[in-house]
Amino acid sequence: MELQKEDILTRFLQFTEVDPKYLRDIILNFIIAGKDTTATTLSWFIYILCNHPLVQEKVAQEIKETMKTKKVMDISEFASSVSEEALEKMHYLHAALTETLRLYPAVPVDGKLCLSDDTLPDGFSVNKGDFVAYQPYAMGRMRFLWGDDAEDFIPERWLDENGFFRQESPFKFTAF
């Protein structure tokens, strides 16, 4: 039995009348958006690790224990051996990356254009044509959302009492 591909290009090609230029633009948009946001996040993550050696050591230790590696000789070989199952066990790495995104979101301000009159959840009315922006950068530093230590890098805030990653509400953590 052949597996069905579930990538975005395959899904678009399932439609019979797709303008090739439109399809090209959409795919390029996804590739560019994914490349830039990933590069930005990894840059901030490396910066954070350099400034927090204890976090760096915890991340490295978790990777070594999960991957059961003693010494890595070739990075390509190591990277190809990382499985989705192994990544799911790396709770501290997930917490450290998420904490990086909380403080340094890949998209710090996100604007939207209102296509019709609407009312926001807090009761504020917006009209067709209004531009509304929310700011993940500012939200990640709000003390009333994250506590008095909101500006501090603390990956443990994402872990439960057993050390498992705990996701926050998407209305509180808007980076993704």
TrEMBL record:
The lineage of its organism: Eukaryota, Viridiplantae, Streptophyta, Embryophyta, Tracheophyta. This is Cytochrome. It is found in: Membrane. Pfam families: p450. InterPro entries: Cyt_P450, Cyt_P450_E_grp-I, Cyt_P450_sf. The keyword Oxidoreductase applies. Keywords: Iron, Metal-binding, Oxidoreductase. Its main location: membrane.
